[in-house]
Design a protein that fits this description.
The chain is mainly α and 107 residues long. Helix content is 51%, strand content 8%. Strand 1 and strand 2 form a beta hairpin.
């Protein structure tokens, strides 16, 4: 059974400019920063999954659904535009080891 490529190969003519998406995200982060915590938490359909953009373990930017959608769109556009982001860490390490072995003359 063949794997489908859900993100690659599709180019929407309705893509928003990345600057506009980033502006939407930043405005949303600023808006929710002034919002009381309980009001922000009430925006989420589930209190177990808050509307937030994770930035590091234990840190996140609070956003509304608008910010989440903009972040997803920006991520998908970047994924399609930048092939170098599509290589996972494991492949990069494996390729570096193979290249290093070849330079050393070992198999």
């Amino acid at each position: 059974m063949a794997r489908s490529n859900k993100l690659g190969g599709r180019k929407s003519s309705l893509e928003k400019p990345s600057e506009k998406l980033l502006e939407t995200i930043v405005e949303d982060v600023i808006q929710t920063a002034t919002m009381p915590f309980n009001d922000w938490l009430a925006l989420s359909p589930s209190w177990l999954v808050p509307l937030a953009i994770p930035v590091s373990p234990g840190r996140q930017y609070r956003v509304t659904q608008t910010g989440v959608v903009a972040a997803h769109e920006l991520t998908q556009q970047t994924w399609r535009a930048r092939e170098d982001f599509r290589h996972d860490h494991g492949r990069g390490v494996q390729q570096a080891v193979v290249q290093s072995d070849r330079r050393d003359g070992s198999q």
